[in-house]
């Protein structure tokens, strides 16, 4: 998972800087970041979150982070993208992962394009990997953080592709 994130940080730095955004990263370089995951699908989710963050942030920063977090007795990989973008209210947050949803007009103000399927597909992929998506925002105009939590596989040292 760490290799995927490092590649995406490298790839997405230029699009962020083209919008005059500060692009930050905080990647934990220690320990096991292996997960029984389809690396192509997980990369698609992470890319969607970074791309959305860049797309919906007019000024300020986008920050990508990778660390471990305990959830009960499970050790999880936590990938997060935080920004100073448009933020999300509670009503919109409840509908984010539905098919063809684009934020009830909030996002249309950014003329962002898109089908409204990215977050829906991301949710499906993460759920298929026994993971969880967490969305945090203090409201409109206050930025947001999208996180993916995936269980660490402590029994392997390689990424195991799985079919969805």
Q: Strands, helices and their partners?
A:
Blueprint lengths: L1 H17 L3 E6 L11 H17 L5 E11 L2 E10 L6 H4 L24 H11 L3 E5 L7 E8 L13
Parallel strand pairs: 1-2
Antiparallel strand pairs: 2-3, 3-5, 4-5
Structure description:
The structure is a single chain. The chain has 4 helices and 5 strands. The longest helix has 17 residues, at 2-18. The model is unreliable at 104-111 and 156-164 (pLDDT under 50). The two termini are 18 Å apart. It has helices at 2-18, 39-55, 90-93, 118-128, and strands spanning 22-27, 61-71, 74-83, 132-136, 144-151. With 164 residues, it is of the alpha+beta class. The protein has a 5-stranded mixed sheet with strand order 1-2-3-5-4. Helix 1 (2-18) packs parallel to helix 2.
Distinctive features:
alpha+beta, five-stranded mixed sheet, 164 residues, 4 helices
Q: Provide the structure class.
A: alpha+beta
Q: Give me the strand/helix succession.
A: HEHEEHHEE
**β content, as a range?**
15-25%
Q: Report the sheet with the most strands, covering strand number, pairing sense and barrel closure.
A: 5 strands, mixed
Helix content: 25-40%
Catalogue the unreliable spans: 104-111, 156-164
* Spatial order of strands in the largest sheet: 1-2-3-5-4
Our Rg estimate from Cα atoms comes to 15 Å
Mean pLDDT: 86
Strands, total number:
5
Q: DSSP helix count?
A: 4
Distance between the termini: 18 Å
Shape: globular
């Amino acid at each position: 998972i760490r290799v995927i994130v490092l590649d995406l940080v490298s790839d997405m730095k230029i699009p962020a800087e083209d919008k005059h955004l500060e692009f930050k990263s905080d990647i934990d370089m220690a320990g096991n970041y292996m997960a029984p995951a389809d690396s192509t699908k997980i990369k698609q989710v992470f890319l969607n979150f970074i791309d959305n963050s860049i797309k919906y942030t007019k000024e300020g920063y986008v920050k990508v982070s990778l660390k471990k977090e305990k959830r009960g007795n499970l050790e999880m990989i936590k990938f997060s993208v935080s920004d100073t973008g448009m933020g999300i209210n509670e009503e919109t947050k409840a509908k984010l992962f539905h098919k063809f949803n684009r934020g009830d007009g909030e996002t249309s103000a950014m003329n962002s394009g898109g089908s409204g399927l990215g977050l829906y597909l991301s949710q499906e992929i993460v759920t298929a990997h026994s993971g969880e998506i967490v969305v945090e925002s203090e409201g409109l105009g206050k930025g947001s953080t999208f996180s993916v939590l995936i269980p660490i596989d402590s029994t392997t040292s390689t990424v195991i592709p799985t079919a969805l």
